User: What shape does this take?
Amino acid sequence: MNSKQVDEEHLPAWISQLKYNCPRCRRAMIQNEARPPRCESCGFQARIDRGVYSFVVPTDSIDEWQNTYEKLATSSLGNTSMAVQYRSPLQQHYVVNAFRDLCSDLNPDARILDVGCGNGIFWEKMLDARPALGVDYSVGMCVLARQRGLLAFQADALALPFADEEFDLVYSAGLLEHMADLPALCAELARVCRPGGRIVVGSGNRVSLARQAMRLARKVKPHPVDSKNPPTVMWTAADIAATARQLPLEPEMACWTHFPLPWRRCSRSLRGILTPLASNVVVRLKKLPQAENY
Assistant: This one.
């Protein structure tokens, strides 16, 4: 396991300058160096759990995916790519490269948010451990991410604890597969992204012929990662683009990977005859000023 820890004394200045919004009432939170942010409007108080700031609003309901990742975080798979739902390190490597293609023109001072950061292994490989902020619904995964050097908070992706327009790049490598409400997720990612900034999201390809074959095979012999997991939701580039166009977001480009083959295809066209052959899809969206979209 990577023994690097978050060095909070040497984090970039922009992290300490972030403004927070209450995940419950969405109003500004009061920041105090002596304690986690607090909302004076509704009384919500962020807390510290296992050294991680938690911005999740307590509920009586149980989230199946949260339970799944909490168990994985403390299992023998915790610091592996399998713990964040990849078949193998090679599959994750292919997806990492697709994200790199779509995030290659980042400004050196860009504010970066990894939504659904998991154990931090994707961030470490994709951004070469560049300073960023991560959020995940699993505290256990946040602990592992912090051990890799990524400052991670526990938060709900549909109620991010940040003020509007705080980030230049918002990316999510695998969260879409756990979210049934794609419009709500994209709207929240767009809210915290600055106009002109980018949102890059990835998903297993819903129309993949290989994935359909794998689903049939798993009925005969379940994969250890899937045997007790809740069902996943998958999307196409066209699904993501259609959702984006209802928001102040402009689809710019998509990349398809073809695990177990090393092919990667990137295009400004979000459709193509080869799409059913792709295992994963990654889409880049640009945040528009409101006036350009409405």
